[in-house]
Design a protein that fits this description.
By secondary structure, the protein is an alpha/beta fold. The chain has two domains: 20-63, no CATH class; 72-278, YqgF/RNase H-like domain (Nucleotidyltransferase, domain 5). The protein is 28% helix and 21% strand. The chain has six helices and eleven strands. Strands 1, 2, 3, 4, 5, 6, 7, 8, 9, 10 and 11 form an eleven-stranded mixed beta sheet that branches. Helix 1 runs antiparallel to helix 4, helix 2 (148-162) crosses helix 3 (176-190) and helix 4 (205-218) packs across helix 6. The longest helix is centred in the first third of the chain and has 19 residues, at 39-57.
Length: 289
């Protein structure tokens, strides 16, 4: 016998129980548990987790996605170009006088047609303090729609070579699923040794973007190259709303991917032997005549 399901109403869970809330800071911003969470420790947690998660998890305040609006005014802008030094057979990469320790490259691909989603490549470098330098946010242009894959892969390989990058994450939720093999094919034809990591996104895009930017942006750990300010990236950030599912956020998503996926140490050997001699500096300070 088949019967129709009938929902039985019940009282809300834990109705009648007393609620105890003890946030990590009291109303006078003093630690409520100083033996475990000093002001210095609380500050460190706030920087690491970001305002949104800190308010929710440490202050026990309800937070909605709509409160996590990104503010591009928190960015520090830099103009330094990459330079590298080879000394005693070791390769080092710098931005100005800052030595870079890690790098990540993320490609959020699309067909690149006018009026559709943008195909965006993002490259980020890290220094020893954990600061992140958004060096490249490239909105790939497609001129030949009949051979979009080849044209985009060629552009990506050239940008990677220019930035001494030897690995890339490719989002495979859309057309990236078949671009992985194209990248392997074209990189081999070009003689460019790279590692390709397919990456399937499982988290909701708006949450992913907020999780990536919230903590480092407010902590002053995200820096932006001057060239990126000439793209759509900052406009996307100004207009970003977690509740707007149709908003333009392809650059944000690519940079979020580069922040959240595993980065790699800067190689200790020059990743590209085809770079011209004038492109690097040889350290001779240790030699005597």
């Amino acid at each position: 016998m088949i019967t129709r399901y009938k929902r039985v109403k019940s009282a809300p869970f834990l109705r009648g129980f007393d609620e105890l809330r003890i946030p990590v800071l009291d109303n006078a911003t003093r630690p409520t548990w100083p033996e475990r969470f000093s002001l210095e420790k609380i500050k460190e947690i706030r920087i690491r987790s970001g305002n949104r998660k800190f308010s929710s998890q440490m202050l026990l305040q309800p937070v909605t996605l709509s409160e996590g609006i990104l503010n591009p005014n928190h960015f520090n802008i830099y103009q330094n170009d990459l330079r590298y030094i080879e000394s005693n057979g070791k390769f080092k990469l710098y931005l100005g006088d800052i030595e870079l320790t890690h790098v990540n490259c993320f490609w959020d691909p699309a067909f690149g047609k006018t009026g559709r989603d943008n195909s965006v490549l993002a490259i980020i470098f890290w220094d020893a303090l954990g600061k992140m330098y958004i060096q490249e946010v490239i909105y790939l242009k497609v001129h030949n729609t009949n051979d979009s894959a080849h044209e985009q892969c060629t552009q990506v390989l050239e940008i990677m070579e220019k930035n001494f990058v030897t690995h890339i994450h490719i989002e495979t939720n859309g057309i990236g699923a078949f671009l992985v093999e194209f990248m392997r094919k074209y990189s081999q034809e070009k003689g460019q040794m790279i590692t390709i990591q397919p990456w399937h996104q499982k988290q909701k895009k708006s949450e992913r973007i907020l999780d990536a930017f919230d903590a480092p942006l407010h902590a002053g750990f995200l820096l932006l190259h001057q060239s990126v300010t000439q793209t759509f990236f900052l406009q996307e950030m100004e207009e970003f709303s977690p509740e707007n599912v149709n908003g333009k956020d392809d650059g944000l998503d690519a940079v979020a991917g580069a922040i959240l996926t595993p980065n790699k140490p800067i190689p200790t050997r020059h990743p590209n032997n085809k770079v011209k001699q004038s492109a690097y500096t040889v350290d001779t300070s240790g030699f005597k005549v």
